[in-house]
Amino acid sequence: MAKKILVISGNPKVQSFCEHLAETYAQAAADKHSVKIVKLAELHFDPDLTHGYRKHQSLEADLLAFQADIQWAEHVVIVTPIWWGGIPAKFKGLIDRTFLSGFAFQYEKGKSIPAKLLRGKTSRIIMTMDTPPWYYKWFQGSPALKQLDTATLVFSGFKRAKSNMWGPVINAKEAQLQQWRAQAQQLGSLGL
pTM score, two decimals? Predict the structure, then answer.
């Protein structure tokens, strides 16, 4: 069954390995699904919440378009590097600025847990890193995965994400890079 799939390249650097993986996934998925791709490197917005959430901060055109893409999508694929155990600052800024009350969730009087406004969507998180994935998982606790999946997507109503951790990228041979590309292509062709 065809899905509406949004692929997010969460690396602020142009022509990154994450961008290439995101494009590979999107191209494979486009054979059977409706696909949109968002490249963080091409978005223009202020990632800083100068006043936190206490004062309204108008959304730039790229952020409004991103919110529309999230609403459109049934399945969201995030491809992001892991830097210092977390996601890049600009990617965190994209989430801070767009996953807002009234869009992703809604506070309700008398309830401690907000209503989830993005219910029923599915997701996959593909993370690249220069740390061995086993070390990131068992010794560092996979903080970026927990942040993206549990604290952002599930909090907003998404079903629990499927995930892939690929690394270390820094010293990977071409055969290993090609294996990760092939995995991204296979996931895309299956719409997973």
Answer: 0.96
Q: Is residue 131 scored above 90 in pLDDT?
A: yes
> For residue 52, what pLDDT is reported?
87
Measured distance CA(150)–CA(152) in Å, rounded: 6
All structural domains of the chain with their residue ranges: 4-190
CB neighbours of 23 closer than 8 A, spacing ≥ 6?
9, 37
pLDDT at residue number 53: 85
Say if CB 111 and CB 157 are below 8 A apart. no
Secondary structure in 3-state letters for the chain? CCCEEEEEECCCCCCCHHHHHHHHHHHHHCCCCEEEEEEHHHCCCCCCCCCCCCCCCCCCHHHHHHHHHHHHCCEEEEEEECECCECCHHHHHHHHHHCCECCCEECCCCCCCCEECCCCCEEEEEEECCCCHHHHHHCCCCHHHHHHHHHHHHHHCCCCCEEEEECCCCCCCHHHHHHHHHHHHHHHHHCC
Q: What is the pLDDT of residues 108-130, one digit of tens each?
A: 999 999 999 999 999 999 999 99
CATH architecture label of 4-190? 3-Layer(aba) Sandwich (3.40)
pLDDT at 50 over 90: no
